[in-house]
Design goal:
Elements (H helix, E strand, L loop, with lengths): L1 H12 L6 H5 L2 H20 L3 H24 L5 H15 L1 H4 L7 H14 L17 H13 L8 H21 L2 H21 L4 H25 L9 H14 L3
């Protein structure tokens, strides 16, 4: 009942006497908002904040309803078609739950899921079909590597990938000596792609790992800023040695 009410709210907002802002939005203008809402959900999940998660999931859901309303106005589909489609897809891709097929492990379930996608024609032209070009680069690299590994195009172990990383670093050094910016860019890309490969072999999400490291760096740098402020200093007037000393202090103070 509440869900239907929410759909009706969106219809009202988009109606002739609705909200001036909502009425003029298009699929294109809404793209930044759906991305922003998705990331706000992720932040709430990281913060383990139930109230925040509830609120942000609602905001994300509203964006989905917004897009469905625009599609309805264009005569394409509506929100209930979206729900029907995903329901049918989940039933079809879970025959071990809704039919007689047996799957006992998560690995078997994933294999079955991919088989079903194959039957749906998702990989007709290439096993890489369906990977959004707009994915963040680390996630896209990870998804590509997972796909090709299904057909055996993969390193045998993480040690092999680590050796490859050392090789790529050597090639970057050569590119830096040459000064060719295009070669340097290519080699940096190769290094990052290889790091993603190492992460995958070690069962670490590279996006999550980098996010945690960036957050940790930011927290330590804020510590340096705060200490400098307490001492009446401006960071621009401090030497690198002084800032490094505060950095080491931050690592101890903020540990754990």
């Amino acid at each position: 009942m509440e869900f239907i009410k929410l759909v009706e709210i969106m219809e009202k907002l988009r109606s002739e006497n609705g909200c001036p802002w909502d009425k003029v939005q298009t699929r294109h203008t809404l793209i930044p908002f759906i991305i922003e809402e998705a990331y706000e959900v992720i932040e709430s999940l990281h913060n383990q904040d139930p109230e925040g998660i509830k609120e942000e999931l609602g905001d994300l859901l509203f964006q989905i309803i917004f897009h469905a309303q625009i599609a309805k106005e264009l005569g394409e589909f509506d929100m209930f078609d979206v729900i029907k489609t995903i329901g049918e897809k989940m039933i079809y891709r879970h025959p071990h739950v809704f039919a007689e097929l047996k799957c006992d492990t998560p690995e078997q379930v994933l294999a079955q899921w991919n088989d079903r996608k194959m039957e749906e024609g998702k990989f007709t032209d290439s096993i890489l079909n369906g990977i959004p070009v707009t994915l963040p680069a680390l996630l896209k690299a990870l998804k590509v590597q997972k796909r090709v590994s299904r057909v055996g195009f993969d390193w045998e172990s993480s040690i092999d990938v680590l050796t490859k990383l050392q090789e790529e670093i050597g090639e970057l050094k050569e590119a830096m000596i040459s000064g060719n910016i295009h070669e340097i860019e290519g080699e940096i890309g190769d290094i990052m792609f290889t790091v993603v490969n190492i992460s995958r072999h070690l069962k670490v999400n590279p996006e999550e790992a980098l996010s945690q490291t960036t957050n940790r760096f930011s927290e330590r740098f804020r510590y340096i800023e705060q200490k400098a402020k307490e001492n009446g200093r401006d960071l621009k007037d401090m030497s690198l040695i002084e800032m490094d000393n505060l950095w080491e202090e931050a690592k101890i103070s903020l540990k754990g």
